[in-house]
Specification:
This protein is α/β, with parallel strands linked by helices. It is built from 7 helices and 6 strands. It has a 6-stranded parallel sheet, with helices on both faces. Strand 5, helix 6 and strand 6 form a beta-alpha-beta unit. The protein is globular and about 50 Å long.
């Protein structure tokens, strides 16, 4: 308990500036709410401005450069992405533009402004055939368009970034408000309530 309190005190004293892309999504929205409570100065961005969320379309190179340069964050958490698996299959070029080219723009802005980048990726970069737990260095082998775009985004970060972390999330769930997208948990609940099977 004492260690945790010391860590919180250290964080509150630091006042690191964090820029969160995808701040209208499930994870981004939660981070924008929680991180200021830990003493961070946070700017949330999304492709559309809403309330305290600043407009920053990650596919617009100029806009990304301007927002990051103006805010001067110490860390950029890049959570913006198209995550609808079915949509990505039908719109591969657009999914690539957002998930990969958008990531490239964010990396470049981080490099130019000396910010650490945290890419929120996914376990969909793997094919799921390994007998056992996946490790960081396991070979990526995505089987669908969404996983492919995220695998390519990871490669962009590895090749271009001066200072980055790649965090692969599996199934995100939780609740912010009624505007949240459907998560796997809410999908299961709603499907079962409707009397349908979940495979």
């Amino acid at each position: 308990m004492e260690k945790k309190n010391k860590a919180n005190t250290a964080l509150k004293g630091k006042k690191t500036r964090l820029l969160i892309t995808g701040a209208s999504g499930l994870l981004g929205k939660k981070m924008v709410k929680m991180l200021p409570e830990l003493g961070f100065e946070v700017l949330g961005t999304s492709s559309k401005a809403s309330g305290k969320i600043k407009k920053m379309d990650v596919t617009d190179w100029k806009e990304v450069m301007e927002v990051v340069s103006d805010f001067k964050p110490g860390v950029v958490v890049h959570a913006a992405a198209v995550i609808n698996v079915d949509w990505c299959e039908k719109n591969r070029d657009e999914a690539f533009r957002i998930n990969v080219e958008g990531t490239s723009n964010v990396v470049e802005a981080c490099n130019q402004n000396g910010a650490k980048m945290v890419l929120i990726s996914t376990d969909y970069v793997f094919d799921g055939k390994k007998n056992g737990k996946y490790m960081e260095k396991d070979e990526r082998n995505p089987v669908g368009a969404y996983g492919w775009t995220k695998a390519e985004a990871e490669k962009v970060v590895e090749q271009m970034s001066n200072d980055a972390i790649i965090a692969r999330a599996s199934v995100l769930y939780g609740y912010n408000d009624k505007k949240d997208r459907e998560t796997y948990v809410t999908y299961v609940i709603n499907t079962l309530k409707a009397g349908n099977e979940v495979h």
